[in-house]
Amino acid sequence: MSEEIFFLNRLSFRFPEDEEKTLDKLSFSVYRGEKLVISGPSGCGKSTLLYLLNRLYPDNCDGIIDGEILLFKKAADEYAPGEINHRVATVFQDPDSQFCMPTVEEELAFTLENLHTPFEEMKMRIIEVLKLTGLIHLRKAVIQSLSGGIKQRIATACALIMDPEVLLLDEPLAHLDPYTARQYINWLKELQVKSKLTIVVVEHRLSSWGTFFEREIQLDNNGHLVADRPFVSREPVVFPQRQCAIQENTALHAEKLSVTIKNRQLLAPLSFLVERGEVVVIAGPNGSGKSTLVKTLCGVYKKTTGTIESDSIGYVPQSPEYLFLTQKVSEEVAYSRTSSRSELAKLMTNLRLKEIANVHPFCISHGQKRRVAIAAMLADKRSVLLMDEPTSGQDAAALLELFELIDRRSHEGTTLLIVTHDMEFAASIADSVLLIKDGQLTGKFAAKDLWQNDRLLLSHHLLAPKGVTRLAESFA
Question: What are the residue boundaries of the ABC transporter domain, all occurrences included (predicted)?
């Protein structure tokens, strides 16, 4: 058997402000060279477990630990702050949270400086890792000008430049388009074979990984270990078939809309119409301008040219914590005071937020934060709702609830524009698809036609959803 590098014996963890334990009596080992996935419902403690393996917790949160945890056969609490991070690298769920410098090259250099790398070696190592990750063309790019998917790849490059023994990945596919996600997994597989790197991944989108993993650790809602087993590849979530709810009444009209920031054109002039009750998926490669479009439609970015005619617009961003204004989840959902108490209670139940109603919105998982932001916008009863990657961080049950909510609201007349890389979700929910590439609108397509067009899908880094033939036939 391979060398044991992590050992957990009846490990429990609790945040000081919580009465209940986040993780409860976990016992398992991780061996050198393993490819292990940690699965379980949104908010069950998966990310917390990763942060115990890299010593971010309890060092940075005053958490309370019971039981035993050994890292490389040494008690975890015997490591000095930051010491273990030379051997265990982490890519977080929200890549923005780990960037310190403005450009890609400066961020990589900052990582090497913290490792006391000689200056004369830095340039060579930076170029090597950028070539390895396919990011060499972004060496001088400003990180905050890039898409969420590209930021995720940059964060991975920053982890790999440390030449770690273990790579911890928290939902690494969350912001990647389907084609790039497939490339990322294949690249990770080749890297692991060459380096014998140990890879531990927190993931909901298990169907995207094929047979990559060898083993699965599954947690339940209470932070208990309920399965430690060989990994079995998954099929994607199966959604009900949705009936069209489009009304012949324009809800949003963009005409010759463009965006240029600091002499860089992010969106070329584009025009499209969306009808009341229509569900539109916005799709395309990472960095193509999808998030720029929704930010412009809701006024976060100032348009350079064109007009936007629309009913009242609500917006759920990729990083939903930017919206939060209150101290409790229940207060956040009820902030607009537009919905009745019964309507708010139903939203809290449907989006599985009741159990965290009194928790601070910043203290919940990324998937739960998205559901809070979605609930708050639905409670505000905006006529047009823009969602940027709402499926990220959501387990199967949450995805099905989100599907039902979107379907119900569209039939009530709400218009929804959704940026997503989840093609199964897109195929189930979309009436039409806006395809964007290199800041230009390729066109607006009926969803039932797009899934059959392999050329158009691949040119936009999309893959046909599994079960698309059945879905397409159902429209006939």
Answer: 6-246, 252-463
Helix pair angle (396-411, 341-350), 10° resolution: 140
pLDDT tens column, 449-469? 999 898 999 999 998 887 654
**pLDDT tens per residue, range 368-401:** 888 898 888 888 888 999 999 998 888 888 899 8
Contact 179, 458 (CB under 8 A): yes
Domain residue spans of the chain: 4-230, 247-312+382-460
Low-confidence ranges of the chain (pLDDT < 70): 1, 467-476
At 49, the amino acid letter reads L
Q: Quick check: do 4-230 and 247-312+382-460 share a fold?
A: yes
Q: Which residues pair with 57 in a beta bridge?
A: none
Residues 6+ apart with CB under 8 A from 80: none
CATH class of 4-230: alpha beta
Two tokens, residue 51: 């942060």
> Is the C-alpha dihedral spanning 160, 162, 167, 170 positive or negative?
negative
* pTM of the predicted protein model: 0.85
Locus of tokens 């008690």: 75
- Rg of the Cα atoms in the chain: 22
Pick from 104, 188, 114, 109: nearest CA to 144? 104
Picking from 370, 65, 21, 34, the residue whose alpha carbon sits closest to that of residue 201 is: 34
**Strands of the 4-14 sheet, one edge to the other:** 23-31, 4-14, 64-71, 74-75
Residues 6+ apart with CB under 8 A from 411: 243, 245, 277
Q: Report the C-alpha gap between 21 and 103 in whole angstroms.
A: 39
Q: What is the CATH code of the structural domain delimited by 247-312+382-460?
A: 3.40.50.300
